[in-house]
Amino acid sequence: MSKSRPWVLSLSVCLKFWGLALRLIVALVLVLVSVHAHSAVSVYGEAQLGAGGVRHSNLDFYPGFGSFSGGIFVFDNIGIEAFVDTSLSDGEQGDFKLGIENAAGVAVRFQSPSQRSLQAYVLLGYVDFTLRQEGVTALGERFVKQPFEGIRFSVGVHQRLKKVQGLLFGVEYRNYYADSGITVDGLSVGLRFELK
Amino acid sequence: MSSIILKTKTASALTLLGPLLFLIACSGDGRGLLEEVEVSNLRLKSLEIGPPAGLLADLIVNPGTQHTLTLTAKNQADLPITVDSTNRRWSVRNAIDTQNPTVVRPTVARIDENGNFFALAEGDAVVTVRIGGIGSNQFVITVEDAVFDSIEQIIGADSMERCLPQSYTAKGRYLPRDGSGEGSLRGLPNASWAVVDSNLGSVSGPIDGVATATGVNVGSLELVASFEGKVSAPKSIAIEDTLREINIGPETAALVIGDTLNLIATGKYMKGDIERNNIVITESVQWLAEENNSVLRVSNEAKTKGVVSSLTVGNAFVTAACGNVLQQRTVVVSAAGSTVTTGLSFQDSLDDGEDIFVMSLARGPSQVNLSTGTGYDADADITTNDGTDWSVLNGADIVSVNNAAIKGLITPLSVGTATVRATYNNQLLDIEVRVLP
Q: Counting CB atoms within 10 angstroms of each CB, which of B43, B189, B239, B350 has the fewest?
């Protein structure tokens, strides 16, 4: 039987209470290391509009959201980015309304080489998001807000536009998985600007 | 060369990605959102935590033991409804010691999300649970180290009617290990049960800590419990002479060879001037098939009592007996292909072309009407006919159906879809019932 080492316990406590901060620090370190190693990097920013799909208790909600992200390509077609989402509208089902109040996180982007200005990509990373649900029950108006942490997985395609250099149009499917019994995903369209 | 560099870069990126993903732990409790919808669907009004089956409401347990608490609920109409006690937000805390409120005591107990209570140290613990915005009562459990001493009492009715079973539990005295004080009374869910005179009745179980005693002949049934080598004083239960006759249904007892037929026994009781009919006693009568017959068998086993299975074509009689009160019915077994086709119809609640009976939880019970023929005909109504039997085939937690005083009256219990079966004259009709909020 191996005994728990104090530093392992400390790290565990640290992870528990400072998980988000630690993750962001790790992401920053990764970026700095990568930037340091590769002097020629390109940065990008993206704005998206989307419709989410939140499913639980046999109810489907389709809230609207906006998403903004910024990142750096640390290798060819491999980038690291941070993103934030904001709620634009709630989805309604019967006596209930549900919205993705906010979401934020970091992710690693893997994209394919460009073929006729078209690129496919996959995003994999961490997301912290909050769902807000309102409902009218026999108890009166009820309001529940619940934060979640989990994995962001996205797949999408980008089409480079010819008229404006560095501008791309994209369509994306995303899934925020938090193992909570609630499915959270969405479809979005957006514009991305790359600066080399 | 460029390919090797690309592979090296990709590998480096993945190496960096690994620790990043490792740090991502899924978290967040989605139950708050799910429960709000559940509360709305069930029209949940109240929650009540109770002791484990067979234990006393004033629950006292030993440290180191585990007990699964029960959860009951009522809806807005104050009707009992079923809620799952697992995967819930149970919580437990030490009760405040009013004598020494500032003294820090060890944690008395912990509880998991399935309502399993783990007694850790002596003291009082307060358990609560929440579903959405509905909170439960505060259920107090005392943890006290003690040893079993004796069976103090058998709890249950002092009298019973023939073939109408009654539930009994036992409680015992536990004394502190150091022998000080009077100790405490606790339920004995694992006690063994017996009756002194088996001609008067029988006892079965315990199931979930509860024994079921049934009297069959008039007299005084002596019930005893035993636990850890100690035997209780006998409890005398007077068996009243109120059973007047037994009836066996359905009236046309026929089945096709290879099929089974469920016989139902009902009793007619008279107590004082009050007569009660159609009291179902299928599970408590003794079922017997005609001696030496080769046509059929009838089950006398629990859960399948009264189920007739066919052997060959022919007739034989089946007896349902409660002590010396008995009734017989002839059962006909016919050859395959001679099935009577269903010719029953019900009056649809909505004239929408859908063969579904729609009702509302808010509006409460509704009467469904049944007639013979291929479409509902009020002139041929057999809803309350003595030969018509009503039962819930699927969804007993969604509806109940009256098969006695007001035959065909369906009471909604929760939102959902159930199937109610009507049988008449060896014909059956399955009615889909949809309960809306």
A: B350
Give the architecture (CATH level 2) of B344-436. Sandwich (2.60)
Give chain B positions within 8 Å (CB) of A74. Answer: 13
Q: How far is B87 from chain A (nearest CA, A)?
A: 12
Mean pLDDT on B216-242: 92
Reply yes or no: is the peptide bond before residue A147 cis, omega within 30 of 0: no
Q: Which amino acid is at A192?
A: R
**Locus of tokens 């990373």:** A125
Helices B2-22 & A6-37 angle (0-180, nearest 10):
150
Judged by CB atoms closer than 8 Å, whether chains meet at B37 and A135 is answered as: yes
What predicted TM-score, i.e. pTM, was given to this entire model? 0.63
Supply the DSSP symbol for A23.
Answer: H
Separation between Cα atoms, residue B204 and residue B69, nearest integer Å: 24
- Residue A74: its pLDDT value, please? 86
Asked if A178 and B24 come within 8 Å (Cβ–Cβ), the reply is no
Nearest chain A residue to B2, by CA: A76
What is the rounded average pLDDT for all residues in chain B? 84
Provide CB contacts within 8 A for B49, sequence distance 6+.
B69, B70, B71, B127, B128, B129, B136, B137, B139
Reported as a single tens digit per residue, the pLDDT across B256-273 is 888 888 899 999 999 888
Chain B within 8 Å of A92 (Cβ-Cβ)? no
- For residue A150, the chain B residues in CB contact (below 8 A) are 24, 26-28
- Cβ pairs A/B, distance under 8 A: 118
Each residue's pLDDT tens digit, B317-376: 889 999 888 888 878 887 775 444 457 788 876 656 567 888 888 888 888 888 888 778
Q: Write out the residue limits of the CATH 2.60.40.1080 domain(s) in chain B.
A: 154-240, 243-334, 344-436
- Partner A contacted by B74 (CB < 8 A): no
Give domain B31-143's CATH architecture: Sandwich (2.60)
Tell me the shortest Cα–Cα distance from A133 to chain B, in angstroms.
7
Q: What is the DSSP string of B50-94?
A: EPPTTS-SSEEE-TT-EEEPEEEEEETTS-EE----SS-EEEEEE
**pLDDT the model gives residue B205:** 80
